[in-house]
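forwarding from the other thread:

> can someone predict this with S-adenosylmethionine?

sure thing
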Amino acid sequence: MARTDADTWDLANSVGATATMVAAARAAASRRPRPVINDPFAEPLVRAVGLDLFTRLANGALDPVDLDGNLGFPRMIDTFAARAVFFDDYFAEAGTAGVQQVVIVASGLDSRPYRLTWPAGTTVYEIDQPQVIEFKTSTLSKLGAVSNAEHRAVGIDLRDDWPTALLGAGFDADQPTAWLAEGVLIGFLPQEAEVRLLDNIVSLSGDGSRLAADYGQVAGQSEEAQQQARAMTDRWRDLGLDLDIAALTYPGEHTDVAAYLWAHGWQTVTSDLAEIFTAAGLPPLGDAGQQAPANSIGFVRASLG
Ligand SMILES: C[S@@+](CC[C@H](N)C(=O)[O-])C[C@H]1O[C@@H](n2cnc3c(N)ncnc32)[C@H](O)[C@@H]1O
């Protein structure tokens, strides 16, 4: 179904289901013989959402043939594992540099507030749609998950006035902040909302702030990318899930986040997916790097001052 200006969702439908997909991939990655990540909250969170295909992906019930080569998304499990490692490392560096304020936008079922050990004195804010935040917070609370940071979850749409909500939750714009936008600036926001999001982040960032993100278009416009997206949708439908990721994205060019930040005086370091595979210690991405979505997504770590 096409996106609309004020559409909402939970974790079982629309863009919310993509958060469940990514968490299911992290759960599957955590079950690998030599895992590069360990996300113990991913599987119970995915199970609680209740989408059968993702539950089977998360709990190991899916046929390994489907898992590794037949989901219509080349190297899917490793892709989300590599991405998780890349951003985990980013937070470790920010903590070492003394940054004690963290904001994770579009946090979905990311369990980092609970999964990572934060330096003493850290406050971690998360922003996502209200239904997503409520579901994750209550499910993790039932699981007994505890964050070692001061954790504040803000349920608001990123197309709305989230800076006021964040400031209302105690965010301090005078402190350096480590921002994370993982899996959202890849087509899930309208282009003008992407720029507004980045404008707001820049204006809320004191000296010493950082930002990490992936960016581009998960469902590119090229014939090859469209074909790839259709293959994935069809394969998932065969496996019992009706989720058309391409239809959930806004078509067209999306913001080059690294170029945007550079133009605003931030230092930027970019990587492609093949590089973050190598950095995570995964087997090389190989030919999958020439295909969508690998060839249409970039990764950036940026800092101010
Ligand atoms: C692919 S998921 C990524 C979730 C998480 N960052 C991760 O990597 O596991 C995309 C997330 O973006 C959130 N999102 C997309 N558009 C949003 C909006 N307009 N307002 C708030 N959240 C949004 C969705 O709810 C979803 O949790």
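The longest strand covers residues 210-216. thats all i got for now
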